[in-house]
Amino acid sequence: MPGSRKRLGYWLSQKKCKKLSFSDIEDALRERDIEPVKIDLEEPIDKQGPFNGILHKLTDFIAKAENGDDEGQKVLQYFESYIQDNPSVLVMDSIACLRTLINRYKTYCIINKCQLLNEETAVFIPPFVELQTNVYETNVHLLRLSKVNFPAVCKPVIAHGSSAHQMTLIFNESGLKDAIYPCVVQTFVNHNAVLYKLFALGRKYTTVLRPSIKNFNNCEDLASIRFDGGEISKPNSSSRLAVQDEREVNGHLHESPCPKILNRIVQAINESIGLGLFGVDVIVEASTGRIAIVDVNAFPGYEGVTDFPGRLADFVREELDKSSHETSVITRENGICNGTNDCRNLTNFRKTDTEKTSMA
Ligand SMILES: Nc1ncnc2c1ncn2[C@@H]1O[C@H](COP(=O)(O)OP(=O)(O)OP(=O)(O)O)[C@@H](O)[C@H]1O
Ligand SMILES: O=P(O)(O)O[C@H]1[C@H](O)[C@H](O)[C@H](OP(=O)(O)O)[C@@H](OP(=O)(O)O)[C@@H]1O
Ligand SMILES: [Mg+2]
């Protein structure tokens, strides 16, 4: 029933709980009549329920499972079989959506199909290509075919996990020997070293300004540069790569992107990938003012979002209420279930891969 007391299972790493001050989130949830229960992944989940919803960040396990790791596969298997047996439990976010998101190439491809990306909105994804192995001639050919220009950023295909942020800036074709494979190579866009993080909860979001990589002009002869993609745009980044030389500034320095367009970007990603808790990293192309989407992150840090615990708790409450409303509508319309276990899933979080693709 919408408005009634709910039980929310959650699993976040200890590090993530600490970073988010999860005890504040627990208080905010309780204020909204939601009882948070930490899930022990080593015990059967059904014995820890019943749950109306589950909030989690299992991306590291998903990334490990993709790499064939036993622990990752086991955790996911248990989790997914629990969800299969309890389809009325709302999962924030669904494992299927996160599987897409941890692969940078798949994520870029899905967003690229959104109607939002056009000349009128001036939103784009910088040209990119997936390179599987270090075969120089093939890679040069693929790069040219995909219209990826130099400088370019080489990013690991898998976007989460320990080695997901090791990136290489390359300035010419011979730099391809320095990339770590498999990777996605993407044209580097000069943006005056400013990045905008859009921290989203469903369709609502907050914009936070961050440091970013400086401009590069006339740099065809530079040697490749390795960097940690996860560190450059942190609030207190101390990277020399993020220090903009005033002489290299192009166009207008701090032209903020139009909030209406940012709003549409968040909506498009919420719908096309089916995510509820996510961050979008955008930059403004210095020479044109166009907005480039360069990264989408699952359940990011939300650092800089005012009253994040309250906003997250409001979001969870709304989603749980929506979910129980949808469940009771199916019950009335089909007479197929009793409102507990038999209902089909309706929300974005639980769309199947086929449904998601057709929405893109
Ligand atoms: N196409 C691009 N053009 C210019 N700069 C870029 C581009 N792509 C990424 N960057 C820069 O590289 C940094 C890391 O890129 P990206 O966000 O894709 O990596 P990440 O490791 O997934 O980071 P995180 O997950 O912490 O957001 C960005 O913060 C931005 O400064
Ligand atoms: O500055 P933000 O909040 O974007 O930093 C995020 C980062 O973008 C990634 O989402 C990280 O997730 P992983 O790639 O899965 O490691 C987040 O790490 P986490 O430890 O908070 O989950 C960063 O906060
Ligand atoms: Mg990322």
TrEMBL record:
Enzyme class: transferase
Keywords assigned by UniProt, alphabetized: ATP-binding, Isomerase, Kinase, Magnesium, Metal-binding, Nucleotide-binding, Transferase
Binding site for Mg(2+) 1: 281, 295
EC number in record: 2.7.1.134
Residues annotated as binding Mg(2+) 2: 295, 297
One GO CC term, this protein: cytoplasm
Chain ranges of the ATP-grasp domain: 115-331
Reactions accelerated catalytically: 1D-myo-inositol 3,4,6-trisphosphate + ATP = 1D-myo-inositol 1,3,4,6-tetrakisphosphate + ADP + H(+); 1D-myo-inositol 1,3,4-trisphosphate + ATP = 1D-myo-inositol 1,3,4,6-tetrakisphosphate + ADP + H(+); 1D-myo-inositol 1,3,4-trisphosphate + 1D-myo-inositol 1,3,4,5,6-pentakisphosphate = 1D-myo-inositol 3,4,5,6-tetrakisphosphate + 1D-myo-inositol 1,3,4,5-tetrakisphosphate; 1D-myo-inositol 1,3,4-trisphosphate + 1D-myo-inositol 1,3,4,5,6-pentakisphosphate = 1D-myo-inositol 3,4,5,6-tetrakisphosphate + 1D-myo-inositol 1,3,4,6-tetrakisphosphate
InterPro entries, alphabetized: ATP-grasp, Inositol_tetrakis-P_1-kinase, InsP(3)kin_ATP-grasp, ITPK1_N
Chain positions recorded as ATP binding sites: 104, 155, 186-197, 212
Cofactor binding description: Binds 2 magnesium ions per subunit.
Highest taxon in the source lineage: Eukaryota
GO MF: ATP binding; inositol-1,3,4-trisphosphate 5-kinase activity; inositol-1,3,4-trisphosphate 6-kinase activity; inositol-3,4,5,6-tetrakisphosphate 1-kinase activity; inositol-3,4,6-trisphosphate 1-kinase activity; isomerase activity; magnesium ion binding
Subunit-structure text: Monomer.
Family recorded in the similarity comment: Belongs to the ITPK1 family.
Protein name per the record: Inositol-tetrakisphosphate 1-kinase
Organism: Orchesella cincta
